[in-house]
Amino acid sequence: MVEGFVEYWGNQGQQRITFDLSKDGTSLVYRTEIFDHAELFPGWHVMHDFARVPLVATCGHKLLGHTNHQAWWRPSFDASQVVSVSDVSYSNLAEQDSCQPARKDEESTPAGGGSNDGHQTDDWYLCTWEVWYDRYGTEISRTLLYCVPM
Predict the structure, then answer these.
(1) Is 94 within 8 Å of 77 (Cβ atoms)?
(2) Residue 14 and residue 147: Cα distance in Å, rounded?
(3) CB of 74 within 8 A of CB of 82?
(4) Does pLDDT of 68 surpass 90?
(5) Residue 150 vs residues 112, 115, 126, 131, 147: alpha-carbon distances, Å
């Protein structure tokens, strides 16, 4: 969520709230939302708006936002604006905690394919097995012969 807040004197105001949501250096959502405010009489008024993006994940996202505030006085009998002021405000970087790596089941590197120290691996192997079946098709033994890294 990015919040735009400003107090102004006038009877017309507009906020353009822009947010940039990213994860792992990739921009996921870059969007600007526009909020218009109008009063009949000029005076001190407050613009307080929120731009939101729903998230399911609870880790790894970064959010930056900025708001362009603009206010003016426009007499009701005239279409031209008399006084106009504008300002920009920027948010601090908001970050979720880093995501933990996806857990894989422990797997051992097959015989002939390196060490067998029980560490997780993303390596792929093509393995050859010797499998014996009885006359009914039931497996009675299985022996790993060798594996070749792919």
Answers:
(1) no
(2) 67
(3) yes
(4) yes
(5) 13, 16, 7, 22, 9
